[in-house]
Write a structure and sequence with these properties.
12 strands; alpha/beta
């Protein structure tokens, strides 16, 4: 019986953590993939566990039957949550949630998840009453807790490594529900004798309850901080998040099991106090080791494939965050042993688990919305280490050995001091202009010498001053394809340079939607010179929210909606390339409106591009493809969809009226704009082969893009660039009605490819073809840069950049000398 019930409890843990990830996904789709949404799910999840554990802390004469009923109840709750989230996705519910405020959103998530989480939280004291023998609550309770947590790691691994894309999100809910129901049914089938209750269960002392709550708060706060720190160096896909989370859970399980073993030899009070001190030391030392192992927060990229990458992530997490998690996992079993189990294990296990989970709610929310914005990531680790030491003093008051151990730990933490570690990784010659930590990530403004860049989480460049012309073109192009756009929306703001195209063209009403508030603040402060002071214009409205959720909730209609190029493998970004996203955008278009989706081909394989294109074709009647640039290795293209063919209208007059700050030599004439057109996808049916599309229930892009299976030993990836993209563009442009400007665009890209491979003869041929096809565009460009050939233009630009860099170095040296003089008396 014991072995069977232990397996059932492991299965309960797998169902619980699988549901947590599924709830994160579903809540992100209906409330927005934002930090407040994640915090809301965490609060409701751990709050429900706390309520369930507290409610089940009274002993039962039929604990096995209680556990079985709770497993079935959790299964029904899982199916209920799926139904509620589907109702919340309806347009009417979306509009209601938009006006309900944070309280309404928390209530909506609570209605969805609390029935299941309350049942799941009650399973621990119930199974404890059934399997814990008198006098063994710490030892056996720790082993049970370890099994349940280990099951949770299996649940996260299943959902995080592909179950939703393999069987669908809805079916994944069904699998989690079935797992919980099966565990409950097996438990109900187990024959067990009624328990005989002897004595009155002791109530845990307030001091122990406080320590349990504090340990839960510190542990969940640290998990939030560690995930934010890992986000500074990883590619932040669903796989990397799952790998780090699995390590945390396995470490906690190992700690709980270790605590159960050590309690045979060490008193509960001493073990709890020692574990807390060890957690403090491991926290400070782990952060220091992390920074050293990553070369000062350098990017940890993929080398040969997903398996190797995940293995390195697991190793890094185990070495840095793992020891503190192991130590914190020891605490709860040790506290159970201190309370004892006279009258049954349900009371100590339920009461302390409830306060531990309630503390976790406070810790997670405080880390995301108080600690990170107020003192930052580095000081947050220092605060957590100090909190562990304070808790150790609380539980082990009066023990001299502990005092000496804690004093030594304080000295070690001061020496290690996580607060003195770097906040961002800077290459040689780069300077940090500003950095702000928030719940959604760390936003930095970095001066590279020839570019002012906006970066999120250290490795991801959201835009910069050097690429201002190309970024603005991503706004100009779709707006020029509409005859008279009066109201437009930009999904994704970053530097704001793309959205500044609406100012340049005199659009009457512009809405920009940005997910990360710190990004919007940096765009206003540091990039106003390039975005035309976008956020200070009265005709521009900033919305800090998830772009998809905003479109689903608003009643406004737009002439043009422009969706930024989002990193495909980022966790949650795949939903912005889903059919439901495109259907939402189509519903918000005014008559004859256009939706534009920019795609970074240098971050997509051909397979992933085809998935997105098929998804786009499933929604829009007319789909055309346009390029933003002619870079051979970093091409950016747009899918433009609507109920009409998108063609430039009144382009010449509108381009002539552009202000000087928005002038684009390529777009100086209507021919230059046409050079960016690749063709009509529906007019070339064979260009996109049949296959699957990306949906909320089958999130192909989110799970396909991060795999990067086409990686060789040198780390090169088979992106949809170079010759592969050129062949696709030629196929689209093969229509008999192709005009000279489109042919010139294809020739100019071939010229760039020839230059990249140092084929001067081929480059000269393509250059001559461009000159023959669009002499007006070439003449306009050469007026801006008076050189004889395109090749000369490239060499001249390189020389100018080198000269600028030398001047910049001289200015830096002068500034350093002035600083030295200022410090002299």
């Amino acid at each position: 019986m014991i072995a069977v019930l232990a397996i059932c409890f492991t299965a309960s843990g797998a169902a619980a953590l699988a549901l947590e990830l599924l709830w994160m996904r579903s809540a992100g789709l209906v409330l927005g993939t934002t930090a407040p949404t994640a915090a809301t799910v965490l609060a409701c999840y751990f709050g429900g566990l706390a309520l369930g554990a507290a409610a089940a802390s009274r002993a039962s004469t039929r604990p096995v039957r209680r556990y079985g009923a709770l497993g079935i109840g959790a299964a029904l709750g899982a199916l209920w949550s799926l139904a509620v989230f589907r109702v919340l996705a309806e347009p009417a519910a979306q509009r209601a949630l938009a006006s309900a405020g944070i309280a309404g959103r928390i209530a909506a998530v609570g209605v969805a998840v609390l029935p299941a989480t309350v049942c799941l939280g009650a399973t621990l004291p119930a199974i404890g009453d059934a399997l814990v023998l008198p006098g063994t609550v710490g030892r056996r309770g720790g082993l049970l807790y370890a099994l349940n947590t280990l099951g949770g790691a299996l649940g996260i691994a299943a959902v995080g490594f592909g179950l939703p894309v393999a069987i669908g999100v809805g079916a994944s809910y069904g699998a989690a529900a079935a797992t919980s129901a099966l565990a409950g049914l097996v438990a109900l089938a187990v024959r067990s004798r009624p328990a005989v209750l002897v004595g009155t269960p002791p109530a845990p002392a307030l001091r122990l309850l406080a320590v349990a709550a504090g340990a839960g708060a510190a542990g969940l706060a640290l998990e939030v901080l560690w995930i934010r720190l890992f986000a500074q160096v990883l590619h932040n896909s669903v796989y990397s998040f799952a790998a780090v989370s699995v390590v945390f859970l396995v470490a906690l399980a190992a700690g709980a099991a270790l605590g159960g073993v050590l309690l045979r030899h060490v008193a509960g009070v001493s073990l709890a106090a020692g574990a807390l001190v060890a957690a403090a030391l491991a926290t400070a030392g782990g952060v220091r080791l992390f920074v050293h192992a990553t070369g000062g927060l350098g990017y940890v990229g993929m080398r040969t494939g997903l398996g190797e990458y995940v293995a390195r992530i697991v190793g890094l997490a185990a070495a840095t965050a793992g020891p503190a998690a192991v130590a914190s996992g020891v605490v709860l079993p040790a506290l159970w042993a201190v309370v004892g189990d006279r009258g049954g294990a349900a009371r100590p296990m339920g009461a302390l688990a409830a306060t531990n989970a309630a503390g976790g709610v406070v810790g997670a929310l405080a880390a995301a919305f108080v600690i990170l914005p107020a003192i930052g990531l580095r000081a947050g680790f220092l605060l957590a280490a100090g909190a562990y030491l304070a808790l150790a003093e609380t539980v082990g008051a009066g023990r001299r050995t502990l005092h000496a151990f804690a004093a030594a730990a304080v000295i070690a933490i001061v020496v290690l001091d996580p607060a003195r570690l770097p906040i961002a990784h800077l290459a040689a010659g780069e300077r940090l202009r500003a950095a702000t930590a928030g719940a959604a990530g760390t936003v930095a403004v970095v001066d590279t010498g020839d570019d002012l860049q906006l970066r999120l989480d250290n490795a991801y460049v959201l835009g910069g001053s050097a690429a201002a012309r190309n970024e603005r073109r991503q706004g100009l192009l779709p707006l020029l394809l509409h005859p008279a756009p009066h109201r437009v929306a930009f999904v994704g703001m970053a530097t704001g340079i793309t959205a500044s195209a609406s100012l340049a063209l005199g659009v009457e009403d512009t809405t920009v939607v940005e997910l990360v508030p710190e990004v919007a603040a940096a765009a206003r402060t540091h990039f106003a010179a390039w975005n035309g002071g976008l956020l200070d214009r009265p005709a521009v409205h900033l919305v800090v929210d998830d772009g998809r959720r905003y479109l689903a909730a608003t009643r406004d209609h737009f002439d043009v909606i422009i969706s930024d190029l989002f990193i495909p493998w980022h966790a949650g970004a795949g939903s912005l390339y889903a059919r439901e996203m495109y259907e939402t955008a189509a519903a918000r278009l005014a008559p004859a409106g256009l939706f534009c989706q920019w795609l970074p081909l240098y971050q997509l394989t051909r397979e992933e591009f085809d998935v997105i294109a098929r998804t786009f074709l499933a929604v829009f009647a007319h789909v055309s493809v346009w390029r933003d640039d002619f870079y051979p290795d970093r091409p950016v293209v747009a899918l433009v969809g609507g109920d009409r063919v998108a063609e430039p209208e009144n382009a010449a007059a509108r381009l002539a009226a552009l202000p000087d700050w928005a002038h684009d030599p390529l777009l100086a004439t209507a021919s230059g704009l046409t050079m960016l057109e690749l063709g009509d996808l529906r007019a070339t049916p064979g260009a996109i082969p049949p296959g699957r599309i990306n949906t909320d229930d089958r999130p192909l892009i989110e799970f396909l893009a991060p795999r990067l299976t086409r990686v060789d030993a040198t780390g090169d990836k088979d992106w949809f660039t170079g010759e592969a993209f050129a062949a696709f563009a030629d196929e689209l442009a093969a229509s008999p009605d192709r005009d000279a400007a489109r042919a010139a665009g294809a020739a100019l890209y071939r010229y760039a490819l020839a230059m990249a491979r140092d084929d001067a003869a081929a480059a000269a041929d393509f250059e001559a073809e461009v000159r023959r096809l669009v002499p007006d565009v070439v003449a306009g460009a050469e007026q801006q840069t008076p050189v004889a050939t395109l090749a000369d233009a490239r060499r001249t630009l390189a020389a100018l950049e080198d000269a600028q860099a030398r001047v910049k170095d001289r200015l830096d040296a002068v500034e350093q000398q002035l600083e030295v003089l200022d410090r002299q008396p």
